[in-house]
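Entry — protein

Goal — fold tokens:
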Amino acid sequence: MRLSIVEDDPMLLGNLAILLGGEPGIQLKGTFFNGEDALQVLHNLRSLDDISSQIGNVPEVFLVDLGLPGISGIEFIGKAKKLFPNIEFMAFTVFEDKKTILSAIKAGASGYILKGGAPRELVEALFSLYQGGAPMSPKIARALIAEFRGEAVAEQYVLTRREHEILTFLENGSTYKEIASSCVISPHTVHSHIKNIYEKLHVKNRKEALIMAKKKGIIL
């Protein structure tokens, strides 16, 4: 595996170079304190007339800190991925918020490892990435699962503004006639909206609808 590292902490970069550069199966092709320098090297390689003669100098995997000075690690990954689509990128960071995780993955990272773990875990994660895997720290994997579960729930139980309004009236104990009067629609239309609400929430009556809506956070 041809590996390059982008990390702005000199001490950490030095430790990573010693750890990974001495690992059997890893060729350390470059270490960088910022994304600009790493991009310049990639641009230089890309501009060669006969890039095939320099393919051995092109990293196959990049270990990238996301909190870089200048361009961010996420921006670096996106730009580098456009230059060399076959390079694999491992985000290596302290950031564990969903926005950063998703941004890094959308930019081109296929792995996401939090700093502070055991050195052996990092080595194994890099080899897993190189072999086609998508290694992630457990906390990151759980955050992504929670995110996609939340999106699935929101899509599954999404109500229109009118349906949500009518559901609120039901919660307050209003009759069909009262709802129709308040919304300036016919009782028949109210019945149609309520039928749609029941179908979306997978329930059969008002009581079940209110229980499910509260359980899913649709109403408080």
In short: The mean pLDDT is 89. The CA atoms of residues 36 and 71 lie 7 Å apart. DSSP finds ten helices and five strands in the chain. The longest helix spans residues 138-156.
